[in-house]
Amino acid sequence: MGMGKRVGIWVCGCNHRCPGCSNPELWEFDKSKDIGVDALYGIIKTLYDNNAVDGFTITGGEPFDQETELMELLPMLKKLSADIILYTGYTINELLGKQSRAVNVILESTAILIDGRYIDELNNNVFMRGSDNQSIIILNDDYKNAYTWYFSNGTNRIQNFKIYNNETVSVGIHKRNFKTELNRRVEKYGLRREK
């Protein structure tokens, strides 16, 4: 999610484990999926050099559960584009309460922070947020006008694509009970049901 053409980055590992989360497959801290910051940046830089990239959106899992790596990566990304959107289940007050250098560097490198745990009962299909309790915080004033317009005029979209092992991943801001509706439609058309 975000304006323009973006690179999406999902991290593995989340201590929040919000009921109804659209990405429970990313809750586990899976060492087999670890990638070094320099290697990840190399992949992103190649994408950036060979495609029109307007910004980056980072979500998870929980990015702040890997704050040391995020502290390294974000300043590198910011040199490519300062349009960095970061989703977190922590509130801005919880982050500031940590009083850590890593949190400060991350927030200084972030244009837009979307904070707060996902609460399924508050999922009312609000734009760019999973649930009404989450806040959109513009941290880089250079993006204030453009994103104020975008937040007022945008609609949530879902993108589905296949990854390794022929699994389909659905990304974006999902409506409440989207998996139930997806399974209903899959069965209606006689396709294989989601596990």
How is this fold's topology laid out?
Elements: E1 6-10, H1 37-50, E2 55-59, H2 67-80, E3 84-87, H3 92-98, H4 101-109, E4 112-115, E5 135-138, H5 144-153, E6 158-162, E7 168-172, H6 178-188
Parallel strand pairs: 1-2, 2-3, 3-4
Antiparallel strand pairs: 4-5, 6-7
Helix pairs in contact: 1-2, 2-4
Could you explain the architecture of this structure?
This protein is of the alpha/beta class. The chain has one domain. Helix content is 33%, strand content 16%. It is built from six helices and seven strands; from the N terminus they run βαβαβααββαββα. The protein has helices at residues 37-50, 67-80, 92-98, 101-109, 144-153, 178-188; strands spanning 6-10, 55-59, 84-87, 112-115, 135-138, 158-162, 168-172. The strands form two sheets. A five-stranded mixed β-sheet has the order 1-2-3-4-5, covered by helices on one side. It has a two-stranded antiparallel ribbon with strand order 6-7. α1 links the parallel β1 (6-10) and β2 (55-59). The two termini are 26 Å apart. The model has no long low-confidence stretch (mean pLDDT 86).
